[in-house]
Amino acid sequence: MMTICKGCGKQVQESEVAMCTHCLGPKAHVLTLAKSRGSASDVPMPPALEKRLQDFLRNHYRENPSGYVFANRNGNSYSVGKVTEYGLWPAQKALNIERSGLHAFRHAAASELLEEGVPLTVVQRQMRHCDARTTLQKYGHVVGDAHRRAVNTLAEKIERYTAIELVPSAELVPSTL
User: What domains sit in the chain, N to C, each tagged with a CATH number?
Assistant: First the structure.
């Protein structure tokens, strides 16, 4: 469940805990997400994530009347609070990571896409923001960090080449007559 949050940049409103099997859609490598009933959109799903999800459905899926992918023993969707309290926080504690909520996965997905140089408009679509300005306002600091790293890398290259001592050739040395 948390892998899907991270891999697709889902948010709580898109019911990561109440995702239904119909969300998997007929297209390969696509997850259909909806913030509300009227705003469904297809989001690319990496093949490795699709493989993990298919494995989960084959080996751990519980049939339930609502068709939830992740259902509790009563066939209901998990509550966000319970997933965080009994799933996320124990994993973070075991890994000695500071506590966070499920939204941290969405933030991490957007930040990593931007750090990798993915165009802002692509990140906007993946996050399902209506306007690229929203994406830039929320994750603009990542662009700034990437910009700083790019400038530092360029400076290191320049420094590496200017550190080479150039020996003038005989043609360039002025003659003394």
Answer: 2-162 (1.10.443.10)
